[in-house]
Amino acid sequence: MAYISGAGFTRVTNHWDLSLEDLAVEAGIRALEDSGHEEIDAVVVANSFSGTANGQEDLSSIIVDQLGIRDAPSFKVSLEGASGAAAIITATALVNSGIARRVLVIGVEKMSDVTALEDLTLISSTSLDRRFEREIGATIHSQHALIMQTYMRRYNIGEEDFGHFPVLMHENACVVPHAQFRYKLKLENYMRSPYLAEPLKLFDVPAEGDGAAAVVVSERGEVKISGFSISSGKVMLSLREDLLRLDVVRSSVKRALDMAEMDLSSISFTKIHDSSSVLAYLQLESIGLAEEGKAPQLTAEGRFSRDGEMPVNPEGGLKARGYPVGASAVYQAAEAYLQLTGRVGESQIDGAKSCLLLSISGVGSGATSIVLTR
Amino acid sequence: MVLERTSIPLYWRDRGIKYRLLGGECKSCNRRFFPYRKVCPHCGSTDVNKVNLPRRGRVVSFTVVHNAPRGFEYYTPYVIALIELKDGTRLLSQLTDVEPDEVREGMEVEMVIRIHRTCGESWLIAYGYKFRPVLKK
Description:
The complex is a heterodimer of chains A (374) and B (137). The two termini of chain A are 13 Å apart. In chain A, helix 1 (20-34) packs across helix 3 (59-67) and helix 4 packs across helix 13. Chain A has 374 residues and is an alpha/beta fold. Helices cover 36% and strands 18% of the residues of chain A. Chain A is globular. Chain B is mainly beta and 137 residues long. Chain B has 2 helices and 8 strands; from the N terminus they run H-H-E-E-E-E-E-E-E-E. In chain B, the strands form 2 sheets. Chain B has a 5-stranded antiparallel sheet. The chains are: A alpha/beta (374), B mainly beta (137). The interface between A and B is large, with 38 and 39 residues.
């Protein structure tokens, strides 16, 4: 059985003075310190865009070299927004199988080296099918927008209903020291934000942010990795039976909970991949935390607030804590580790014993689920 | 940036799909799909024929893109639409010869060949399908 025995991360922001590997080394050192300087026998790096945004491949070798770890196997795991979860699951498999005893997982992303908006949009859209989505001008935002449009039509709701989720995320992030955006967002400011791809607005999606997070996955520790699963599904929107069905979420959550021999009622809090407001709602509905079409209303009513029935993204999620793409699921795990060991300060959920961590690649091409228990 | 460039072989090998809407017809589940690929995305069968899909259809839903990626700035704002062809096959395409505020769900459209983009120092011109409102029924 595998456990998390240490965690560390940097703030999510534009780290103008730090390079891709500087960030990774910083998070790695913090996690190793937190774990009590355990000896590491493998390193798994999670990252999505080092080749395209930073021109650096063979990333794990670069990081391990600079961390001064000698003679440990290392490699990079990549699954776009879910890279971090795929890396943690890989590390868990290494420990569970007895191949390694302690694995350092480092998630890192550095997008602020790309300074032109057009290039950022292009790189952020590389999870789309290149030949028949991106080459015709579709972007990551156009895909979210088409799903949002479908959601609005089917459930007959307006654009303002999508503002409830980012408003909640900003509210949560206000007390989180490492969050990118520590200010409240008003619904009227959400409504005033410009369109990226109609009806998707600037405040529906996270900003690009640099950051690195690391966890130590060990054969001993305080928080157990009780269940995990990865599902892969259809990439192209035009081939999906229903734009509002995230089958990959349903199947990965079910398998992870089954492995942990748990159900949703025994989960203390949930982290989802709010790469847009509508994707957040679809995940809440696909997990089973809201009936179809009801997630906006339940969000507005406070069900997913930190003091609500089921707290979701207590640190502010991708929207407000920040979204360093390949690192974001390692942030989820690191924050959850601190939550479950009662060490997060103002954003602490009292008595939290277990959590479900969900991440997404692309606009629902794949999904990862991890269940952590104390 | 390397990403915005394309190359002749990379583009040319898709000419059947980009110029003639080459799709697949699955002999196992009798469903069609776009673009052509070896394995049916609906049922997983490899018993798939190539088929030129109909060039007319209707807009199912659409979005107006305001922050274009590198290579598409010239066309901004432009419409990306999910289109259902006459035989029920769906695809994603840019709309052309129409202002964004004139586009409606259900609008009848037809395929035309247009410049998708020009790229790189060599000004390679990439052509492919776009859809425009049907001119005459």
